[in-house]
Each structure stands twice: as structure tokens, then as C-alpha cells.
Design goal:
This protein has ten helices and three strands, in the order ααββαβααααααα. The protein is mostly helical and about 260 residues long. A hairpin with a 4-residue loop joins strand 1 and strand 2. The termini are far apart.
């Protein structure tokens, strides 16, 4: 009986591991095409935010910037209100447009809709063309392939447990099942370990070259003791997100 359970376990393990290898190979090929140097892209706060946390971090930075300059009011109750309807940049105008003509909307849906806005996606596309950000398709396919291998590993464990439960006492089926099921278990575990080293980079927003750019950015340890406190705060938010905010009310507004 355990042989019938071994077949789907081996099939799932082999298929998922081959999928991950195929995706990783394609990602390596894309990473090999000569990117432009970082200085040719223009790395500002929004670009830094995208490399550190993706579209969601870009939206958080825009909200903090506009709230800090009195253009938006972020309430801890989960509402965003427009104070100054004049956007100073394409992203600010897109944010105000997403809020709507009433000038007020829920912060959560606003963050989700703005993260998918073409203006935000354009930042990621530009960084990807420069070789600093992982292309969205590569990141999505890599994450899906890793999840498939994890699912296959879980399936192997469950089928092994079922085989041991069905094994007749004293027949030696249990030992044989453990020996044969060790093959797909070793395959999936080994693939996940190798993916942790070689493939994990492609699940991040920043490509290896982008990670080097992030390492050059420094988050000031004392935000209030710099020559430009606003710039220091925005840099910290771009790098680590709302956790860098010293205003508890603003932090609560972004948590809702």
C-alpha cells in the first residue's frame, strides 16, 4: 500500500524541484544582461524605498512625506484626508487622485490601490531595467516555485505518516517506507537549502546590485540631531518603514 503513496510523493517532489531550478536558471540569465550604473538611474528617496520594501514602502513614504508637510492628515482611526489638493509630483498627484473627489478615504484601501498604480510600478520597472530591482515576474515566479517545493515537502511528510499508519506490524513495511520516502524528502529539503543560498535573492525587491545601493544608504541613529531632520526621517522611513517614525499617532495611522 505504501508504494501507491510513494508515487505521488516522488512526482510532487521532482516536479516542484525542477520548476524551481528552471525559474532560478531564467533569473540568472536575466541578471546577466548588463545593467546601467546606479548613477545613471537617479536614486532618490522613492527609489530607495522601493528597493528596501517594494511598492508598499513607496506608498508609506509618500504618506509620511505629505503628512509631515501638512498636505495630508492621517488619522489613527484609519482615514486619510486631503489638506492641500495640489500635488507637487506625479506620485503625490496620483495619491490625491486615488483618494477621490471627496478628499477623504480609508487609509488601507488607499495604500493598496496606490501600490498598484502605474506611477509606483514605473519606479520598479525603471529600477529593474537598470538591474537594481528584481523584475516583478521573476520575483513572483521564484516565490511561487519555492512555495511549491515547501508544499511538496509537506505532502511527502503526510504521505509517509499515512504509510506508517497503514503498515502492518512486524512486516518490515515501515522500514521500507521510511527508506524510500527519504529520497523525496532529501530532494525537497536539499533544494530548499540551496534555494536559501542561491535563489532567495530573487524573492526580494532589490537585486544584488540594488542591495549594494542600499548598503550605501545610512539611517541616522539620532533623527533629531542632524542638519536636516526631515531628510533623515524620510530616509529612515524609506529604509525600515513606519517603525522609524517617532510620532506614535502617525505610526498608529499607518498600522491601521
Amino acid at each position: 500500500m505504501w508504494v501507491l503513496l510513494l508515487i505521488p510523493a516522488c512526482a510532487a517532489a521532482a516536479f516542484s524541484c525542477l520548476q524551481l531550478v528552471r525559474v532560478a536558471t531564467r533569473a540568472d540569465l536575466l541578471d546577466g544582461f548588463g545593467p546601467r550604473p546606479p548613477e545613471a538611474v537617479g536614486i532618490g528617496l522613492y527609489e530607495t524605498a522601493y528597493l528596501a520594501g517594494g511598492p508598499g514602502r513607496v506608498v508609506e513614504l509618500a504618506l509620511v512625506l505629505m503628512a509631515g508637510r501638512g498636505r495630508l492628515h492621517l488619522a489613527h482611526t484609519g482615514w486619510t484626508t486631503v489638506v492641500d489638493p495640489r500635488g507637487r509630483s506625479r506620485l503625490e498627484r496620483a495619491l490625491i487622485e486615488q483618494i477621490g473627489p471627496e478628499g477623504q478615504c480609508r487609509t488601507g484601501p488607499l495604500r493598496a490601490s496606490l501600490a498598484a498604480h502605474p506611477t509606483v510600478r514605473e519606479i520598479g520597472d525603471r529600477l529593474a531595467r537598470a538591474g537594481l530591482a528584481t523584475p516583478e515576474t521573476v520575483r513572483r515566479d521564484t516565490s511561487r516555485a519555492v512555495r511549491q517545493v515547501r508544499t511538496a515537502l509537506l505532502l511527502c511528510v503526510l504521505l509517509l505518516a499515512a504509510s506508517l499508519a497503514l503498515a502492518a506490524p512486524g512486516s518490515g513495511d515501515a522500514s521500507a517506507a521510511i527508506a524510500w520516502f527519504s529520497l523525496p524528502l532529501i530532494l525537497t529539503c536539499g533544494t530548499l537549502l540551496m534555494a536559501r543560498v542561491d535563489v532567495h535573492t530573487y524573492t526580494r525587491f532589490a537585486a544584488p546590485a540594488g542591495l549594494e545601493v542600499l548598503r550605501t544608504a545610512r539611517v541616522p541613529r539620532q533623527l533629531g540631531h542632524t542638519r536636516d531632520p526631515e531628510q533623515a526621517l524620510l530616509t529612515a522611513v524609506a529604509m525600515v518603514g513606519p517603525a522609524a517614525l517617532t510620532d506614535e499617532r502617525l505610526r498608529a495611522a499607518l498600522r491601521t
